[in-house]
Amino acid sequence: MDHQRTIDTVGRVLTILSSLLLIGNLIGGLTFYLASSGSEASKAEDPMNFLADYYLAFCAVMILISLAYLLSAMALRKGKAWAYKTVRTLTMIFILLIYLFAVAMGASIVMTGGGYGPVLVIAFVALFISTPLWLLLWYLSKRAVRKLFV
Fold first, then answer.
1. pTM
2. Number of domains composing the chain
């Protein structure tokens, strides 16, 4: 298997996906800001209200992650060792954020008496979304791939 060619493809795919992530969070943050200007922050203990109160901060963090992902993906195609480490680290952070968001949404549903059915759906969606990221980590952990970045 030609790992250098595959790394180039992985870099291209990550460049596209990080660009979409960047655009989506820019638009989401701007839309939320414009739609919520003038409204007060909620004081309830519901986790979804907490997420809504800090949605702009969440978007800002995701914008920073997607920018770092974008720069790292472009450098990964060139075989830079720092990019390899950064992509792996950002992928782990992104997986963690997916699961933390799913737990917060699940806790909100359970606290409001929504039952466990929707929580299972959220867990399945989080697993579904994170599977390609786990596969990326698995591929980048292969010995032959690691040797390309030494």
1. 0.81
2. 1
